[in-house]
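Backbone geometry:

***
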Amino acid sequence: MTLTPQTRRFIETVTAATPEIGPGADPAELREARTKRTPIEGPGVALVRDLAAPGPAGDIPLRQYRPDPEDAAAPGIVFFHGGGFVLGDLATHDHVCRILADSTGAVVVAVDYRLAPEHRYPAAVEDAFAAARWIADNAAGLGIDPARLAVAGDSAGGNLAAVVAHRARDEGGPALCYQALIYPVTDFSGYGAGAPYPSRAENGDGYFLTATAMAWFNEQYLSDGQEREPGASPLFAESFADLPPALVLTADFDPLRDEGEEYARRLAGAGVPTTTVRVNDGFHGIFGFGQFLPSAKRAEEAVAAALRDAFAVDGGREG
């Protein structure tokens, strides 16, 4: 299978406008370049407001999106953005959160966790878990039904959503009804020669996210010997039992495709209701580009449908 010409042109355009990520790259310069991009406009929602949750190293910035002006409790989504644990913030994923809120009817709360290399692992994990707990504890004030609280994230954010789900199970909550993992990072081991997943070699160059970039993100985020720690690579968790039902969305031309699908197999093998969706004509980073590409629209619709279904059946009641 090959990319459609439309998607190939899109990748080439985005790649040409993006500084190369690899040896010698400067995180501050990469972040600055992102601020100069023309932002993508997401759908309008009834309320957007900035908040903060107490965290292990100070306040964690949050942004709340409420699609419905009514005060009745709605489902909630704790969202963690992607960016290799080095890039990304509330602004880069504003349109993504608007899409999720508008398409699911849920209150979305985005988490601006600390970034590497200034704050290496486990800083992002600690912030993500602390924020999820605060959101659950303050659900009433946020207009969220605590019985219908999900976690979601793309790429690095998908990793954090998965890790938070494990910690919530092991550390007494918060109770989560679902996890939507969008092309998640699940295994930091094996970059370079002898990569354990064919997609890392097949899709390691020419599809926006490169294998070189992933190795660089690894070096920024982790210290030596941490690649197989379950908090960094949830694929190495001791148990997958009793985790929330899950959607794992992958993309044909993503170097992370195979590790995401292996994670889905581990969940399903432990009896967790799991749906795997592979986006044809898809690449890493496609989510949020639905107004430009049909394949991206399909990705957005798949995630929204899974979340709506989860919210509708949770607790045996209609959403």
About this structure: DSSP finds ten helices and eight strands in the chain. Confidence is low (pLDDT under 50) at residues 315-319.
